[in-house]
Write a structure and sequence with these properties.
Rossmann fold, single chain, 434 Repressor (Amino-terminal Domain), 12 helices, 335 residues
Length: 335
């Protein structure tokens, strides 16, 4: 039977200490993305080369027991089927892997009970930290997270009652960009399509829409699970009123209403101009392509990951993480 290679074998072969091999193989990286211990690149590469040559396979289960930790993160998103959250998930997983962590993903589907179930399930799996997108009515789930003492960061949304670390986009600036763009395209009878759920990304955008266009400017509210009938009702009302510009608060309702308008023979970008928040590949099917507000998804993931690993490091060092409540607000761009 082939010998089970250990870090002691690697240390002997590489001519270094067992502790140094352990530091390198355990991928000890801090919140700043740098190694916690001073190891020259040449030494690190020599250790890794020896490990590869000897076909070293770490015993992750034993390491978890020895360190008393799982090196697993929990990420709760609204809808990973949406390219917005799918992209964030992609970047978060890459960041976690860089730090030697794996990720458990969960879809809340904007259901506060599902949010709570996932929080409880992930806590039972001993995840070491969370990145979460809270939904309307999820205060109980948020309180459970706080009570757990696990580090966590909120992304995409904010709330005055959530005194927690958060990373999100400046929705007011984004809406101002959207309105300016649709006016420059010649629209004068402008309305908005939003979600019915009262989450900060929607309410922030709606507030600026009314500030700029007046309190009587109309906003259509669609449910999270949009049906064809929901989108058809909006399309028919838009056509009846002679609306020539629609600002879409998100890509999913945007695509649903676009399809409904198209089925009715409306010439998109001629009869009605569209500007939307967030990308969809459907936008390129029209001429000119539909303008959209691009949120900085890689930066949202990067800042959330950086913040979360900072909190994990603080907790490891015995510091009180409950006082850390920074808000990181990023800028959107017009595409």
């Amino acid at each position: 039977m082939a010998k089970n290679i250990t870090i002691k074998d690697i240390a002997r072969e590489a001519g270094v200490s067992i502790a140094l091999v352990s530091f390198v193989m355990n991928n000890r990286i801090g919140a700043d993305g740098k190694q916690k211990y001073r190891v020259s690149e040449a030494t690190k590469e020599r250790i890794l080369e020896v490990a590869r040559r000897l076909n070293y396979r770490p015993n992750n289960a034993a390491r978890t027991l020895r360190q008393g930790r799982t090196r697993v993160l929990g990420v709760l998103l609204s809808d990973m089927g949406n390219i917005f959250y799918g992209t964030i998930a992609h970047y978060l997983e890459k960041i976690a892997n860089k730090h030697g962590y794996t990720v458990l993903f969960g879809n809340t589907e904007e259901d506060p009970e599902q949010f709570m179930r996932l929080v409880q399930s992930f806590l039972e799996k001993d995840v070491e930290g969370f990145v979460v997108v809270p939904c309307q009515g999820s205060m109980a789930g948020m309180e459970r997270l706080k009570e757990s003492g696990r580090p966590f960061v909120v992304i995409d949304r904010h709330h005055p009652d959530w005194e927690v670390p958060s990373v999100y986009t400046d929705n007011a600036e984004g809406m101002n960009l959207a309105i300016k763009a649709i006016r420059e395209q010649g629209a004068t009878r402008i309305e908005m399509v939003s979600y019915a759920m009262r989450i900060s990304s929607m309410t922030d955008r709606e507030e600026i829409f009314h500030q700029v266009l007046g309190p009587d400017a109309h906003i259509y509210h669609l449910p999270f699970n949009i049906t064809e009938a929901d989108a058809d009702a909006v399309a028919e009302e838009v056509i009846r009123k002679g609306t020539d510009g629609l600002v879409m608060a998100s890509n999913v309702p945007s695509v649903a209403v676009l399809k409904a308008l198209f089925r009715r023979g409306v010439r998109i970008q001629e009869d009605i101009r569209i500007v939307s928040f967030d990308y969809s590949n459907v936008y390129n099917f029209f001429t000119p392509a539909i303008t959209y507000i691009q949120q900085p998804l890689p930066q949202i993931a990067e800042q959330a990951g950086k913040y979360l690993f900072r909190l994990i490091d603080m907790k490891d060092e015995g510091e009180d993480i409950s006082t850390v409540k920074d808000k990181i607000i990023l800028k959107a761009t017009l595409v």
